[in-house]
Design goal:
alpha/beta, 18 helices, 26% strand, six-stranded parallel sheet, single chain
């Protein structure tokens, strides 16, 4: 029997008991696989990391790992990758590891949403407190999201974040919130980042008379959180879709090993479309009853069974750069990707309502076989010619699979790969990559690549040498740890300007060394197109004057 493993710290936490473990048990029954739950009941890093290594030794079929900020787990995940064991991170990411993708809430977007909610409720000047952080990567991204949103609301001042270690009793958090409520009469809002901080905040507010002028938003939605929402102490809950993320992560791992109808049952990394933001459920007093109806884990599975498949399908198509389209049971095209329009030279809606034989050179017997794919619920592959709008034809490898929803065939998914000059194209691509790598690594100036939220992806050899780092040490840090702008400007200005305008420069900036020394430099930043994970990247070039401070 195949074994998949879910690994985390605090494995007896009520949020896992309520939202994750019921889904794992349901998965085990539905897919006839073994699902192991491993990791410490506390914050023991040794037990947590050893659980990964033990799973590698057992040659499990896949791992779902909740990230807790431990650097020791990164080599363990890399070892799993070497052994071709697929690893996905869920709920909390481990971006520096070799995991295939992260499935869970994008905390940068969540932080922006929490801040936006507070701004809309407060409608005026005051202060906002960020509390319940513990230095984890996702919380840090959430804080950056809050600060980015608050740049456009200067009438509100952000306090914190208060980085409190996991405080299950909430006593330390309650004491701290009480101090803030007493010290700052103009405190207008509180953003609670972890589960216990919301309940501690509620207790602190209940102990102070006439304090409900303070607006409170929080994450997680256990029964206790819903109770304080009903009382009106908490105003908005942003509930992570833990059950959803766990189920979707397993589906991707299972498809990695067995393929799926979406990929014509090809196995491997093609089944992992990249990071997937599972978003959040926004809960208020007005919709709390609707939320409670879908609170049970089994109900979550039933309600999301079809939407999970459609989400995976849409993400899969978004990442495919070949011809990809959907046809109904009669062969009429009902959906096509932007890449399809581009390659076949059609305008946006011209393909819709055409028939498959209008763009593919089918023989009559081949066409009948294609339409029978849906009826017989089988996949089919063949090589034929695709026809562009201008009449030019080129050979493609066609993969056809049925789209099945609620045990009924609904249509066909067609993916066509141009095989006209495949060998030459692969060779050219490889040569281009080698040339780029050579230029990148041997450039005489510093080059840093980072994401929209400021997270550094990679840097060249010159950057590491000049700043005193090992090359791998900069990956995962924020760009503000390396770049200091002139005239007291915040690094957030760089992020906002480069991703809005596509370009940024500062002739009097500084590069920050590992030992905190500064090197006078000119920086130029350009924004690139979205990468395979649909995240925008920027490339920062730092030209040093050699003057150290």
């Amino acid at each position: 029997m195949e074994e998949y493993v879910w690994i985390s710290k605090y494995t007896e936490h009520i949020l896992f008991e309520k939202h994750v473990f019921p889904i794992l048990r349901r998965i085990s029954s539905e897919f006839k696989v073994k699902i192991s739950i491993e990791g410490p009941q506390d914050d023991s890093s040794d037990v947590y990391v050893n659980a990964v290594y033990e799973a590698v030794k057992r040659r499990v079929s896949g791992m779902m790992i909740v990230g807790w900020g431990d650097s020791q787990v990164i080599p363990a995940i890399k070892e799993a990758s070497k052994q071709d064991i697929p690893v996905l991170t869920v709920e909390r990411d481990i971006p520096q590891s070799k995991r295939l993708a992260f499935i869970g809430t994008d905390w940068y977007r969540l932080g922006q949403a929490m801040a936006n909610s507070l701004v809309n409720m407060i409608q005026g000047p005051g202060k906002i407190l960020i509390i319940g952080c513990s230095g984890l990567d996702d919380f840090e991204k959430g804080v950056r999201g809050v600060n980015f949103r608050m740049q456009s609301s200067p009438e509100l001042q952000v306090l914190g974040p208060e980085n409190i270690a996991l405080d299950e009793s909430g006593e330390n958090t309650e004491r701290l919130v009480t101090q803030y409520l007493t010290m700052y009469p103009d405190l207008a809002g509180i953003a609670c980042f972890n589960s216990s901080s919301a309940l501690a905040t509620a207790r602190a507010m209940e102990s102070i008379v006439n304090i409900k002028t303070v607006k409170v938003v929080c994450v997680d939605a256990d029964i206790s959180h819903l109770n304080v929402l009903r009382k009106g102490i908490v105003d908005v809950i942003f509930a992570q879709k833990r059950a959803y993320a766990t189920y979707l992560a397993f589906k991707l791992l299972h498809s990695y090993n067995h393929g799926s109808e979406i990929t014509a049952y090809k196995t491997g990394k093609i089944n992992i479309p990249g990071n997937i933001d599972t978003g959040y459920s926004l809960i208020t007093k007005d919709n709390i009853d609707c939320f409670l109806q879908s609170f049970d884990g089994e109900e979550v599975l039933q309600r999301h069974h079809l939407s999970q498949k459609l989400l995976f399908f849409s993400r899969m198509l978004d990442n495919i750069r070949e011809i990809a389209l959907i046809a109904d049971l009669k062969g009429r095209i009902v959906y096509a990707t932007a890449s399809t329009f581009l390659q076949l030279k059609y305008e946006a809606n011209e393909l819709l309502s055409l028939n498959l034989y209008d763009i593919f050179d089918f023989k009559e017997s081949e066409y009948r076989t294609i339409l029978n794919c849906a009826e017989n619920e089988v996949c089919h592959n063949l090589i034929l010619k695709a026809k562009r709008k201008d009449g030019i034809a080129f050979p493609v490898q066609l993969g056809i699979s049925p789209l099945i929803a609620e045990n009924e065939s609904r249509g066909l998914l067609i993916i066509a790969l141009d095989v006209g000059d495949l060998v030459k194209s692969e060779k050219q691509a490889k040569e281009s990559e080698q040339k780029f790598r050579m230029l990148f690594d041997n450039a005489a100036f510093m080059i840093i690549v980072f994401y929209r939220d400021g997270t550094i992806v990679e840097c060249n050899r010159k950057t590491a040498e000049a700043l005193g780092y090992e090359p791998y040490e900069l990956a995962g840090r924020n760009i503000e740890a390396v770049v200091c702008l002139s005239h007291g400007r915040q690094t957030g200005c760089l992020l906002e300007e480069v991703f809005l305008k596509g370009h940024f420069s500062d002739s009097n900036a500084h590069a920050i060394k590992k030992d905190a020394g500064k090197i006078s430099a000119r920086i130029t930043v350009s924004c690139s197109s979205a990468n395979e994970d649909q995240q925008e990247k920027a490339i920062c070039v730092i030209e040093s004057s050699g003057i150290q401070q």
